[in-house]
Amino acid sequence: MIIKVIPAGPLQTNCYIVMDEKVKEAIVLDPGQDPDLIIREIESLNCKVSAILLTHAHADHDDGVVDVKNKYNVPVYMNREEEKYMDLDNSVYGKLPKIYDFIEDGDILKVGDLDIKCIHTPGHTKGGMCFLIEDKVFTGDTLFQGSIGRTDFIGGDFDEIIKSINEKLLILENNVEVYPGHGPKSTIIFERTRNPFLA
């Protein structure tokens, strides 16, 4: 597996290209801003894009979706709850046209020979999703290195995010690497033992 991280836009939101290097098939996760940069990075990998995945629908995570979808004509997946909040709020949510399909907790998607397990982790948003691929988990704005996502936006809930992290993420193996929506990567063991929000 090859993971390319592209910090994009003024909030340096991590867009990830995850590729099965054997068959050179990839997914694009959270193409938020700077879609031209993201497309250039995809082209440099000389890979086939099979899907776009969204951890949630805040604008800094989905503003580049239309450009990337138009370029590669692939499905876009997100949780159904995000659609409701895109209709309710235009301060932090992006406004995607209805070009997406819905995923739920426990769904399995494929990229090449890699299985992508979809994990519903509400708290930062109601439809927040994390994605587990082998020993890597992509956590969006649910879990950061030494921190957690904000819960003061519409749809956020502090108790819910703590529950999601404890029950859905910290149960993963110690060596699982955490790839967040902003900032550097971490590990489950580091967050379980060193994250002050989870003590």
UniProtKB/TrEMBL annotation:
Superkingdom of source: Bacteria
SUPFAM superfamilies: Metallo-hydrolase/oxidoreductase
Cofactor: Zn(2+)
UniProt domain Metallo-beta-lactamase: residue ranges: 12-182
Annotated GO MF terms: hydrolase activity; metal ion binding
Matching InterPro entries: MBL_Glyoxalase_II, Metallo-B-lactamas, RibonucZ/Hydroxyglut_hydro
Keywords, ordered alphabetically: Hydrolase, Metal-binding, Zinc
Name of the molecule in the record: Glyoxylase, beta-lactamase superfamily II
Species of provenance: Clostridium gasigenes
Lineage: Bacteria, Bacillati, Bacillota, Clostridia, Eubacteriales
